[in-house]
Amino acid sequence: MKKIFLILYSSFFILNFSFSQNVEVYPSHWWVGMKWNKVQLMLRDNRPDFILAVDKLVVRSSSPDLKIIKVNRVENRRYLFLDVEISPNAKPQSVTISLGGVIANEWQKFPFELKPRRTGNGTAFAQGVYSQDFMYLIMPDRFANGDYSNDKVPGMRDQSLNRDSLQLRHGGDLQGVIDHLDYLKDLGITAVWLTPVMENDMPRRTEHGYAMTNQYKVDPRLGTNELYKTLGDELHKRGMKLVQDAVYNHMGSYNFTFLDPPMKDWVHQWPAYTQTNYKDQPLFDPHGSEADKKKMVDGWFTREMPDMNQSNPYVANFLIQQAIWSVEEFGVDGWRIDTYIYCDLDFMNRCNKALMDEYPRITMFGECWVTGTANEAYFVQNNLNSKFKSNLVGVTDFQWIFNGIYPAIKEGKNDNLYEVLSNDFLYKEPLNNVIFLDNHDITRFYSEVGEDFDKLKMGLGCLLTSRGVPEMYYGTEVLMTGAKGGRQFDLNVRKDFPGGWKEDVQNKFTSAGRTEKENEIFNWTKTIANFRKNSSAIKTGKLMQYAPQNGTYVYFRYDGKQTVMVVMNTGDKERTIDVKRFVERTNGFSKARNIVTSATNDLDAEWNLPAKTIWIMELNK
Ligand SMILES: [Ca+2]
Ligand SMILES: [Ca+2]
């Protein structure tokens, strides 16, 4: 029986040698030995007048290792969804899938590769991003231009290229990121998160990447799929990690699945354009209305960003498979998930689970821009007694920055930071919260604190010693400024990194190109980040904080091996602290060494803390 099958398959292959150029396949290939071995292939005939779902359609596979389980016809007959199953024992090979009607010469054939798994099998990649890491956020169009030949790509809708306007493209790319990985490593960075790199073939405002038009193809102005793979490899070579920015909630309105949808409910349809209410409360409010909840989840983010219908099983498979495919293809280590709270949360749990099943160490953190710790905890693994239980590993911790750091550092209100951290009992693992001073959507921290150098130093000191996964936005280490608001809205926080373009007069990637102050903040960051790299107490230890007193705030990071004491005076005047008050944690130690200046203080003394100062002290016997 087996032999006959083999003969049939091989003769079939020989008779039909040329492949159709017209069938697009998503995902384009898969791997042998994956847990996710039942794959739903989305096929599309890219010729306007041709259909794939012909009458009396027959679909064949050239290999018994890839079985066609089900052929799904959908409303749009130019599409087909094939459920295939890959044998657990399959060897890497190229399978030919053929589609045909009654007449033999009308067969359309395409190759489908079953590839060997990426080297390391999920150990050398998919490593997860944890509190041990220091993550750097880059908007690739604005960081460095490593390839001038891809600045404008013929045929793409946005043909702008003008660095004088923040609305237009600037030419930065993946090669520019690769060229500066050693700079980042030197700074102490261990993980790089890029705003989305997949194709955004939109007519305007394409700098941010959140309006994807093809989720499987790297934007040609940033590079190619191959170059993105190289970026992953180059990061791993340096012991660093790749974080991919996923957008599951929406896509760009020029996405091919919106211009030519497989079915009407691929996106959420409303009788008239309906925008989300941007309100997280209806999702957990016991008094909330279904109408508000529906508007929140199914309403569109903007007119240019149609809302994907994740309760449609075809959409769900498309998104989940794209996620797994990206990890294996590019060597992704962790995910940042955009607009998490606008997604179907049950779908998000399924998607996260599929990734965690395939890659046990992988992590994902969601953008949960909400106000209130309980609200934030709802969207992540938590200790709440709510009906819905999220399996999300981490969140972008907007409470830490907005309700904790801003009041503490801008106004000297340390109590606010103390209170925010005291609410950590709501999180299952607050160490997984991603903390930050700034990102691509909010005012740069240096501008937020009125370009007060001491306040920036305090902020960075806190960022690198508080609990959580610290994230730094590109350029903060060289005093980049930019405030959100006004006509430019978020564009002032998306300026170019000076030195990323060969025509730049200043090059702040080198110490010679930086001013004294810029070098001071760069070295401040580098010193603490590199201390942190070897500090078990900060990376994974516990936090103990003391109620702020007399304008000062003191917390400890500690484990069985190490104790680090962080002392802050956020006020305008020198303050005295009596260190004996902290005996619960200083017991057994006699000295404290400042990890930046190496100055040593006795622990049985009073310390005079200058105004606007943070001291990070390692305790010694
Ligand atoms: Ca370029
Ligand atoms: Ca939505």
| Average pLDDT, all residues | 95
What Rg, in angstroms, do the CA atoms define? Answer: 27 Å
Helix fraction, binned, reads 25-40%
Instruction: Count up the helices.
Output: 17
Characterize the main sheet.
8 strands, parallel
Structural class: alpha/beta
pLDDT < 50 stretches: 1-16
> What is the distance, rounded to the nearest whole angstrom, between the alpha carbons of the first and last residues?
77 Å
User: How many strands appear in the DSSP assignment?
Assistant: 26
Shape by Cα distribution? elongated
* Ligand set: calcium ion
Spatial sequence of strands, sheet with the most strands? 16-15-14-13-10-9-18-17
Strand content: 15-25%
List the helices and strands and how they pair.
Elements: H1 2-15, E1 23-26, E2 29-31, E3 38-45, E4 58-61, E5 66-73, E6 79-86, E7 93-100, E8 108-115, E9 135-138, H2 174-179, H3 181-187, E10 191-194, E11 198-199, E12 214-218, H4 225-237, E13 241-246, H5 256-259, H6 281-284, H7 290-298, H8 313-330, E14 334-337, H9 345-358, E15 363-366, H10 373-378, E16 394-395, H11 398-411, H12 414-422, E17 434-436, H13 445-448, H14 453-463, E18 469-473, H15 516-533, H16 536-540, E19 542-549, E20 552-558, E21 563-569, E22 575-578, H17 583-586, E23 591-594, E24 600-602, E25 606-609, E26 613-620
Parallel strand pairs: 2-8, 9-10, 9-18, 10-13, 13-14, 14-15, 15-16, 17-18
Antiparallel strand pairs: 1-3, 3-6, 4-7, 5-6, 7-8, 11-12, 19-20, 20-21, 21-26, 22-25, 23-24, 23-26
Helix pairs in contact: 8-9, 11-12, 14-15
Bound molecules: calcium ion (2 copies).
